[in-house]
Each structure stands twice: as C-alpha cells, then as structure tokens.
Amino acid sequence: MSHAHDHHGHAHDDHGHSHGPLGHGHGSSDKNRVLIAALLTGCFMVAEAIGGIVTGSLALLADAGHMLTDSVSLVLAWYAFHLASRAATSRLTYGFDRVKTLVAYTNGLTVFAIGLWIVYEAFHRISEPSPIMGGPMLVVAVLGLLVNITAFFVLHGGDRENLNMRGAILHVIGDLLGSVAAIAAALIILYTGWYPIDPILSSLVAVLLFRSAWSLVREAGHMLLEGTPNGLDRDLIARDIETNIRSVVSVHHMHVWSLDGARNMATLHACLRDGADAHAAICDIKLRLAKVHRIEHVTVEPEFGHCADRPTHAHLH
Fold it and tell me: How far is CA 7 from the centre of its chain?
C-alpha cells in the first residue's frame, strides 16, 4: 500500500500500538499433530502405490498420488508452524505467521492439480477398461481407510480456525474419500466384475476435492490480499467505536486484516473531541476491539481537528 498511514509503517512511538499474544495455545500441539499425520500418510503411501500397480486400480493409484502430495504438503505445513514460532525480525516485523497462509494457499492449488490428473486418467480408463484385482485392492483400500481415519482424528483435535491446519485436514479428508471410493469400487468389481466403476468413483472423489480446494484457495487468497476477515465488518466496527467511546468523534482510514485466520489486526485514525485524553481514548479503543471484535493487535492514530492525511486521502465517513 502507498498510504502514509499504512499498517506496515506506523511509528510505534507516535501512535498507540498494542500486540496480541504472539503465540497460540494450539501452536505446539498443532505442529506435533501435523508431523504425526505426515508420517502416517507418507509411510502408507508407498504401500498403496505398490498395491495400485499390482492390482491395476486407478482408485488406489489416485489415492496414493494424493497421499504423496499430502505427505509433502503436511511436511510443509509442519515447517510453516515451525517458522511461525520464530521471533519477528527487523525485516519481517510480523514474524512468520503468514507462511501458514501461503502453505494453505499452495495446498489448495495442489489439490486442484491432483484432481485434474485423476479426471484425465479416469477418462482414458473408462474408454479402455483394464482388468483389476478386486480382492487385493479391497485389502489395501481398507488399510488405507484406517490410516486416514487415524490421521484425521489426530489433526481434528487441533485449531480448526487456523488456515494451515484446515489445509492439512483437507488433504487428509481427500485421502479418506479416496479410500472409501476404492473400497466401494473393489466391492463392486468383486461382485459384478464391472471394471469402469473404478475410474468413475475416482472422478467423483476429484469433484468433491475441487469444491473443498476452491473454498480453501479463495479464503487463503482473501487473507493474502489482506481482506477483512470473515465475520468482521470494518464499517460496523468503526461505527461501534464512534457510538460507544465518548471521546471519539469519528473513525477513518481503518484497515482490518488477519495473518493466518486466527490473529486479527487493525489500524485506524481516531478523531477525538477537543480536550480529550488521547492516551485514555487509545486504551478504550483497544479494549473495545479486543473484547467485542476479537481484534487484539491494534494501531491507533489519535487526531484533533483535521486528519493529517486529509489533503491526499478520502475519509471512511
């Protein structure tokens, strides 16, 4: 942003500045959960890939390919949690929390790519069905389902408001759906001998993955663009401050954003009544934003009379 009041350029000595807690209670736990899920997924991926090749099942190969991507993505998610625990620097003043959002965005795009490959391969398998060993396919698929259920419950106990954790859960859900599809396909093949069911169910899983991946990419992209977090309305928040804090005449140049979906931030200019105590007004604003709107990292620029940026910027109100 080019605004003089940009939230990356506020001087801490001149403006009220509050920091929410840099760490989250779920941080260390989430990191360990993601690592356990990565190990479970990575180890079984090899067995499932071998099973897919031996049985000739696209459903197993698709699930193994997805699990390969998931293993890499989960390792990246774990590394993102590791980076987020590092202290901020003079160049990265907010620390590394945004890495988790980048990984979530990348995870969503990766799921899209895997889904496209499944659909492409399924098209060829439907036009040219090949024999599939239903019995061994069923055994591998059931084992895969058990592994994925275990990984899902390991991750499900984490912080689901965190986009990075949600991205990891999305990958495991995709694996779980893939295992269910493989089991269904194996049973149908065993009882009917109809081989096209394998690529058909694989394509159905791909469609479900597209829907979930789009939701994750859209939300992570909105966050990377520093859009207002879901559930928060910038204009309503500004009016709430003007209504409930007597010393405030108006609020403008307000920005509300989040680093990772859990840590909300805001910057704003507050025009105060003549004679108001600026320090007290700043404290009241921060307390109101923290308690009512869950925004704990706030930068407030108090003003009397005209806004310092008025010649070049339009007010919010």
Answer: 23
